[in-house]
Amino acid sequence: MFEFNPPQMILAIVAGVGPVFVVAALGMLVTLLALMVLVPSAPRLGLVDYPDARKRHHQPTPLVGGLAIFAGLLVSVSLAAPLAATTPILMAASAFALLGLVDDKLDLNGPLRSVMQTGLISAFVWASGITVTDLGLGIEIPSHPGISTAAFLFTVVAILGLVNAFNLIDGLDGLASGLAIISLAGVGLGALASGHASHALTVVVLIAPIAIFWLANMGALGERFKTFLGDSGATLLGFLVAVCLIQSSQPGVEVIDPVFVLWCVAVPVIDTLQVMWNRLRAGRSIFDSDRLHMHYQLVDMGYSKHKTVMMMLAGNALVVALGLVLTTLSSALSLCVFVALVVAYANLKQLSTRILDARAAMTARRSRRRFDSL
């Protein structure tokens, strides 16, 4: 027989599972309790989403999921590390939750919302010092003290882009929160693969409250807990994912390759860029609302909402797994394949549009034939 002597990585994980389990469980419990309080209170708070031509849910639904997630994260993150280390991100998360709450109540216009988000992000980057200086493949961004450097500006734009990408893709139950969970799980797996078990366990603390909301949003906890993220939740998730990816990939922590960051948020980022490009090409504002997103396209093609969400989440999980394997083999190869993926996605969008147009034309011809036969 052999002597039991597992790798140090396994021992480190086992040693940390106890505290992580307790902290994550507390975050989940607080999120669930927050849902129990907030969902019935949503009408009095004026936080209810009503169906319209674009939002095709069947009945008015509370918009308090983001607040419930924030409550759970506030507890889990505060217990996971000393407050001195978590205060900047908790303050910024509070500001995003509050701004999103105002947006949910007053329906702020796109430009004003973006300006306010930019101010919040700029203040966070300046106060925390978290910046993107390493793009991978030996490419670095100049970084010096001050707010006018390329690294500072790049970081602000990157976080702003992810915040809005998650907000824009929040169109079906479980989609935005599911994508956020997969993105964070990708960071955890990447950290684990590089031998940084403690960082991987930290990601579990972030995922736990989001997972409770995901179950509620998907209806797994019953109608009593049915709620939407709202802008407060979607922007909060985008901010958390962005900060986690930046911290995990930059010097000082660097538990994942900067190129792998692209794979972790491939679906929301590529879909958002594609939609914005199509709006600009049509001479419209990028802040317009429409059904150009892939999830709406799939629903319009005849797939159920549940199946569409499962397809997109499974696809994103496969993309993250592929990115991790490729980046482990070669960062340059990983980047090349990612660019090819972007091109393929763009063509897929065009193909789906053609299929929808062809179906609409066929339906119109059939209708005319039935009318003529009368």
Task: Give the tags.
374 residues; single chain; 73% helix; two-stranded antiparallel ribbon; 13 helices; mainly alpha; 2% strand
What does this entry look like structurally?
The chain has 374 residues and is mainly α. The chain has one domain. It is 73% helix and 2% strand. The protein has 13 helices and four strands. The chain has a two-stranded antiparallel sheet. β3 (134-136) and β4 (139-140) form a beta hairpin. α6 runs parallel beside α12 (305-329). The protein is globular, with a radius of gyration of 22 Å. The model has no long low-confidence stretch (mean pLDDT 84).
Summarize the structure.
With 374 residues, the chain is mainly alpha-helical.
Kindly name the structural category: mainly alpha
Helix content: over 70%
Strand order of the largest sheet: 1-2
Shape: globular
Strand content: under 5%
- This entry's quaternary arrangement is single chain
How would you spell out the order of helices and strands? HEEHHHEEHHHHHHHHH
Number of strands: 4
SSE layout and pairing:
Blueprint: H1 8-45, E1 48-49, E2 61-62, H2 65-80, H3 83-106, H4 110-128, E3 134-136, E4 139-140, H5 150-168, H6 175-193, H7 197-217, H8 230-249, H9 258-264, H10 266-281, H11 294-300, H12 305-329, H13 331-373
Helix pairs in contact: 1-2, 1-7, 2-3, 2-7, 2-8, 3-4, 3-8, 4-5, 5-8, 5-10, 6-7, 6-8, 6-9, 6-12, 9-12, 9-13, 11-13, 12-13
